[in-house]
């Protein structure tokens, strides 16, 4: 597959079934979960669909033919206004995934470039991501750098869902 035969675009509501399928592949690629959520596809379609419709989520896709081969999600978080000039939004980059057979071809990097170009002129201060150990180099090559690490609190109720 050549990079020239890949089409890049943003997702629409029609893409929800294939995006949900890819989310499952992404989740279960490296581990086995016996506790699968029976309402996952409906919950995914509702959450992501509402986010796309409201503009709070933008999803970039790479397609080969009618198949989505890679995607990147950006959720916008509105900042509390200050009395000084500053950007209104922070972008949460997540669910970055490329099908294994399409990796190493620059498709994910091209999608990430689309995202970074999109932020220009959109009043977005920064993009942040929680990378896996394996993906740190991918993000560093795109210009991401470690800054001040956020302090994180995790609810104990999440332990039962892992």
CATH architecture: 3-Layer(aba) Sandwich
By secondary-structure content and strand pairing, the structural class works out as alpha+beta
| Distinct helical segment count | 4
Number of domains: 1
Tell me the fraction of residues in β-strands, as a range. 15-25%
Q: What's the helix-strand series?
A: EHHEEEHEH
Number of strands: 5
Q: What's the rounded overall pLDDT mean? A: 90
Strand order of the largest sheet: 1-2-3-4-5
Terminal Cα separation, in Å? Answer: 37 Å
Q: Approximately how much helix is present in the residues?
A: 25-40%
Explain the overall architecture.
By secondary structure, the protein is α+β, with helices and mostly antiparallel strands. It has a single domain, classed as Gcn5-related N-acetyltransferase (GNAT) (Aminopeptidase, 3-Layer(aba) Sandwich), CATH 3.40.630. 29% of the residues lie in helices and 24% in strands. It contains four helices and five strands, in the order βααβββαβα. A five-stranded mixed sheet has the order 1-2-3-4-5, with helices on both faces. Helix 3 (107-119) links the parallel strand 4 and strand 5. Helix 1 (16-28) packs across helix 2 (40-54).
């Amino acid at each position: 597959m050549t990079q020239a035969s890949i089409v890049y675009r943003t997702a629409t509501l029609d893409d929800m079934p294939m995006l949900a399928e890819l989310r499952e592949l992404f989740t279960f690629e490296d581990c086995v979960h016996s506790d699968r959520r029976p309402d996952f596809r409906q919950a995914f379609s509702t959450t992501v669909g509402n986010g796309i419709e409201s503009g709070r989520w933008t999803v970039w896709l790479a397609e080969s033919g009618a198949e989505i081969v890679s995607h990147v999600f950006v959720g916008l978080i509105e900042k509390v206004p200050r009395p000084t000039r500053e950007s209104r939004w922070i972008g949460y980059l997540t669910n970055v995934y490329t099908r294994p057979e399409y990796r190493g071809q620059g498709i994910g990097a091209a999608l990430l470039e689309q995202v970074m170009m999109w932020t220009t002129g959109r009043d977005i201060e920064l993009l942040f991501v929680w990378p896996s150990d394996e993906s740190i180099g991918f993000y560093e090559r795109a210009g991401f750098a470690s800054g001040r690490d956020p302090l994180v609190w995790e609810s104990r109720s999440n332990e039962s869902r892992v």
